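Running this now, will post back.
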Amino acid sequence: MSKMGKVLVAMSGGIDSTVSALMLHDQGYEVVGITMKTWDYASSGGGKKETGCCNLDSFNDARMAAVEHGFPHYVLDIREEFGGFVIENFIEEYVAGRTPNPCVLCNTHIKWAALLKRADALGCDFIATGHYVKVREENERFILSKAKDLTKDQSYVLWGLGQECLGRSIYPLGDMLKTEVRQLALDMGYEDLSKKAESYEICFVPDNDYRGFLKRNVDGLEARVNGGNFVLADGSIVGKHKGYPFYTIGQRKGLEVAFGKPMFVTHIQPETNTVMLGEAHELEASQMMVKGINMVKYATLPPSMEAATKIRYRDPGTESILTPMDGGVHVLFNHSVNSIAPGQSAVFYEGDDVIGGGVIHRSLF
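Update: finished.
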């Protein structure tokens, strides 16, 4: 038994998870590699081969790295749990007129739960992934914070992890730049891996056509929603759309309605199959309600707290006031923000630390 402990490392076959596993192995941990099978893209009817975490070549790359360095590797099939929860939620959210964030949901409810369960079964003390984040213990809390490489930071997608997950998690890349990770892969003899392209797609929609995915997986959806109205804020009808689930807040392209000026999707009303359009300023809002809160840095929020709030992955964050209210958190921004999309994640930061996060319920003007 290693003095460092035994760690179960999630290995997708990509550069980040592979380097993470090899770093921990070199540091003296007893490493066990595991690759999770979440989805068979062919079963969705799409026209593109499996990619990312569901690619057979990636499975083989992960296994080969483990074999070469003398530690065991397993494949864990979680397609049933994944499909029954993440994909059903993805469909339900779009049908409800919201914009889901399936990667957050998967991390929170599927992948880490599966990792902890298998870690316990294999006698592992820790779990590890190749995410760019940091975790530390302070005041009897395990605190998630931003990575050194802010261009790769993934704290936004991990806000839902509970204290047990954070307390047993190791993130070897938190203090590294992506360029350093690529160089380390090269130094370890993995030249092909150091040049491997990264995937930013949703694993079960690798062609990035979520509309096509919905059409293939919701019986009769297109016939039910096609032909609804595009309307303006004053209620005037300005055209017909192809169905409210096929539009997202802030969308400009693909509206197929000519105005002579830029127009955007500002609201979606599923109960009337209506998509509201407006100019850029009509996307701005200064308040929102967030539900499904998970606290990270603190066990509870005070009656009022300042924080930087991110409303999407690439959002730099906006200074705001957080107030617990109606079973969630009311967020008052210091200045208006653009394109608040119900269903997306809102994550609250104090400096680099994640205070907590939740799901955007609605914007308020």
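The radius of gyration is 22 Å. More later if anyone needs it.
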